[in-house]
Specification:
Number of domains: 2
CATH superfamily of the largest domain: Dihydrodipicolinate Reductase, domain 2
Structural class: alpha/beta
Order of helices and strands: EHEHEHEHEHEHEHHEEEEEEEEEHHE
Shape: globular
Distance between the termini: 23 Å
Radius of gyration: 21 Å
CATH class of the largest domain: Alpha Beta
CATH architecture of the largest domain: 2-Layer Sandwich
Largest sheet: 9 strands, mixed
Length: 352
């Protein structure tokens, strides 16, 4: 990839929100010979604040200027989804590696553009920040699927909360179509770990409902349309013939948090991913399910930024997540939206 292990990698930060502060900036700085070279946030004031906090030498008022800086090797995109595609395309054109926040893009069309651009620049690393859900027990889930549950028959995906249960709750940016694009509550962040373990669905039938069609936007001071549903139900078909049921909601009191249930011919595996992050298994002959011990040697920890830097240095390949995986989950989300709008089953043919 044009670098040796001894080279300093200079990263430009575009967008410096909560997740960048929590994970990406500290994670990148924890890697040897990595510097945060420049920053461009939503305002000059917020860029200056980030630069001071993290000793970043350069501040840019436009992301285009940062991308064109020839001293920068890689871009970390921490913006809302509406900026992911244009920044990524420009970064590739300027010879820069890309680590972008999820969701990958506003919609499946943008995702395919980003994937195509990454294919045109195979020398550059292209990574999407993965869902943190399901990561700890990732290897154990793979083992149990291969050895203990038998033939997969049914999948249940749950992700409910009461974040939008009250009609006077202000509009969240994730509910804003112009900023967030196609978004189905927690669908993407829970579906993504699921397809780390099983094959992507090939058919969907979906239903959605928005109970509060407009909300007050604190930034604009106006009532604005809600661009995402409050409740999502999806039925899926997998290539192996198994069926899946998804229930996502932002208006459910005391409902189940993020969970994935895998029902097989010989047993059941349930992953309660938040808040407990616990895995349970019960064989067909067991009287009840028991918690699965995730040993230290099998536990997977967050190392996304390290993975990105190592990929740039040619040490490892991207596992969590490459652009091909991102395209597929964007195409799945689009199929859910299309099915909900038409009331018809939608067949999926993935482009990556």
């Amino acid at each position: 990839m044009g670098r040796t292990n001894m080279d300093t990698i200079r990263v430009g930060m575009i967008g410096f929100g909560a997740n960048t502060r929590l994970r990406h900036a500290p994670g990148l700085l924890a890697c040897p010979k990595v510097t945060l070279e420049a920053v461009c946030n939503r305002s000059l004031e917020s860029s200056q604040k980030a630069a001071k906090e993290y000793n970043i030498p350069k501040i840019y008022e436009s992301w285009q200027q940062l991308v064109e800086d020839s001293t920068i090797d890689a871009i970390c995109i921490g913006t809302w989804p509406y900026m992911h595609c244009p920044i990524t395309l420009a970064a590739f054109e300027n010879g820069k590696h890309v680590l972008t926040e999820a969701r990958m893009a506003m919609d499946d069309n943008e995702a395919r553009q980003m994937y195509a651009a990454s294919q045109q620049h195979p020398e550059l690393v292209a990574q999407i920040v993965p869902s943190p859900l399901g990561m700890r027990a990732h290897k154990v889930v793979q083992q149990y699927l291969a050895t203990k549950i038998g033939e997969l028959r049914e999948v249940v995906v749950l992700g409910t909360n009461d974040a939008f249960a009250q009609s006077d709750t202000p509009l969240h940016w994730r509910q804003s179509g112009p900023y967030s694009g196609i978004n189905m509550l927690a669908l993407g962040i829970i579906h993504e770990p699921l397809v780390r373990w099983i094959t992507d669905p090939i058919r969907v039938l979906a239903s959605t409902q928005t109970f509060t069609p407009t909300r007050f936007n604190n930034e604009t001071g106006q009532q604005e349309p809600v661009g995402t549903p409050d409740s999502v139900q999806v039925i899926t078909e997998l290539p192996c013939g198994a069926r899946g049921i998804y229930h996502m909601s932002g208006v459910v009191h005391h409902g189940p948090g993020p969970q994935i249930h895998l029902y097989g011919s010989q047993g059941t595996l349930k992953y309660v991913m938040a808040p407990d992050d616990k895995l349970y298994f019960g064989a067909a002959s067991d009287s009840q399910m028991e918690e699965v011990n995730v040993s230290e040697d099998l536990a997977v920890s967050w190392r996304v930024e390290e993975e990105f830097i190592n990929a740039i240095r040619g040490i490892e390949q991207i596992e969590f997540n490459n652009f091909a995986k991102g395209v597929r989950y964007m195409e799945f989300t689009k199929a859910v939206e299309q099915s909900a709008l038409t009331g018809q089953t939608v067949d999926l043919q993935y482009s990556a």
